[in-house]
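The methods section describes the discrete structure representation at length, but only in general terms. The central task, working out the structure tokens from the amino acid sequence alone, is never made concrete. Nothing conveys this as quickly as seeing an actual entry. For illustration, here is how one protein appears when written out as sequence plus structure tokens:
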Amino acid sequence: MRSSFIFLGIIILSLTSCDAKRVFDEYQTVPNVWNKNDVVRFNIEAPDSTKAYNLFVNLRNTSDYKYSNLFLIVEMNFPHGKTLRDTLEYKMTQPDGTFLGTGLGNVKENKLWYKEGVVFNEDGEYVVSIQHGMRENGEVNGVERLEGITDIGFRIEKTK
């Protein structure tokens, strides 16, 4: 019995210590389709202002995603009113159409670089907003209902 508790403790310790870089890691589920006007928001309390962090957009997609790339509009609102807005493009498939990312089966998980070496030098709450900016080739209006994206996440990691 005692050896079972020790074994269980070792497993729990190894699972929690595998992600020592994580400072913030949260996902939000996209219901059925991602409408072009739907914005996913993450409220983040400023981490240690003396350290630099790497920021990532995480997402999960299924084989229902029909594009080879993904355009995202990511906005970071600082506590004292400053706003940074970026339009980002990420590659989602190999040239042969095979999805990038990790995972077995129909769902792939992608960890996409957003910013490197960020210092959160303002105290308070930061808000990160993410929406898709997909368009069909030659079309002015965006894709109304993006299929195949199931979850959007945001992650902050320690740099070392």
User: Anything to note?
Assistant: The first helix runs from residue 2 to 17. Helices lie at 2-17.
